[in-house]
């Protein structure tokens, strides 16, 4: 059968994967369970502070490090190399997903949802919006 799209959720600063629990449940219901969902606690947040997720530098919360963590999560949960990916990020998570998309680190990308992203990241992403909009179809054959 066809591989289900994978939604990967990245929460904001000071939050956890549970921030998206209701959204994930609603998404599964509305798609008749025809999607895969991954919500994770980024480093330094939620339950990721146990010994299983320790790294050489747990204090590195730079955009580059958080983006690389996102890439690693996608590699671990993506069921098939052609499985379409939809990234969803809130606030700090929005900056992370925008960075991953801008650097073309995750494929194949089907969509990106950014909720209440920090201003600097929002402004930086504007440079990519024109090319993205131009790449979208203007009509669909029915």
Provide a brief overview of the structure.
With 142 residues, the protein is α/β, with parallel strands linked by helices. The chain contains four helices and four strands. It has one domain (6-135): Alpha/Beta hydrolase fold, catalytic domain (Rossmann fold, 3-Layer(aba) Sandwich), CATH 3.40.50.
Write out the strand line-up for the largest beta sheet, numbering strands in chain order: 2-1-3-4
Q: Which regions have little confidence, pLDDT < 50, spanning 5+ residues?
A: none
Could you give a short account of the major beta sheet? 4 strands, parallel
CATH superfamily: Alpha/Beta hydrolase fold, catalytic domain
Total number of helices: 4
**Portion in strands:** 15-25%
- Overall tally of structural domains: 1
CATH architecture: 3-Layer(aba) Sandwich
State the CATH class: Alpha Beta
Keywords: Hydrolase, Serine esterase
Domain AB hydrolase-1: 7-123
Catalytic activity: [phosphatase 2A protein]-C-terminal L-leucine methyl ester + H2O = [phosphatase 2A protein]-C-terminal L-leucine + methanol + H(+)
Pfam family, one: Abhydrolase_6
Write the topology of this structure:
Blueprint: E1 6-10, H1 21-30, E2 36-40, H2 63-77, E3 85-90, H3 92-102, E4 109-115, H4 119-135
Parallel strand pairs: 1-2, 1-3, 3-4
Helix pairs in contact: 2-3, 3-4
Pfam family, one: Abhydrolase_6
Organism: Syncephalis pseudoplumigaleata
GO molecular function: protein methylesterase activity
